[in-house]
Amino acid sequence: QVQLGESGGGLVQAGGSLRLTCEGSGRTFSTYTMGWFRQAPGKEREFLATIGLSGKNKDYSDSVKGRFTISRDNAKSTVYLQMNSLKPEDTTVYLCAAGFGLVVPGKGPTTSSSYRYWGQGTQVTVSS
User: Average pLDDT for residues 61-80, to the nearest whole number?
Assistant: First the structure.
């Protein structure tokens, strides 16, 4: 089991950048595939990015490809989401998740059901 906690959200102007951090508890962080999602009120979770155990394999949704970068530091039990060129439509709650799926570039895992553990989320607000 792993507990996850996100940080780094906040208010930023359109075109700006933020780096989200997700820290995991326990010594098994390196055994989990990690993902970032976002969820607007009343809507389903939207997949953004995923990263494999070593950090080599990654996948992104088309909506953030080229703007967002996922990375991980297993020594710190941490996964990051660097977000650049932010748009007002990026405003929502961002969540990290841990699971066991194999990351294949272009194929995810992209579904929320592929991830077992979730953080509480961090709010990102992009002003126009």
Answer: 97
